[in-house]
Here is the input.
Amino acid sequence: MCPPFRRGGSSRGPAPPLQSPPPINNLTNFPVLNRNLRSNQFPTPPRPNVEVLERINRAVVKARLDLLAAKENVSAWKVSQAALLILKVDSWESLGFQMQEVHSLHQLIAIEGKVSFFHYIFF
Here is the structure.
């Protein structure tokens, strides 16, 4: 059981003085940079294939126009699925790109986010 609390101080005497933190200027734990490394020793990430990305973007634009011509609702999901049908592929993974990497789909996703935010604020 804990001893009762007393207002007049502690029965153990005065508190010990606070200790100062260890010095910050001790840099012995940091690794030393090797200045002999050349930049070509590290693999560079693969650059996206611009022609493939443009082909995908054209399919997205066509899918969007087709949905508008059919007087259907246009959403990023519907456009992306229609673009996959135009490109004759099963998924975005098989293309090697994400939906957000395609410029036209990225714009649609951004517009949908703004509309959703507007709806959330005012309705």
In short: The radius of gyration is 31 Å.
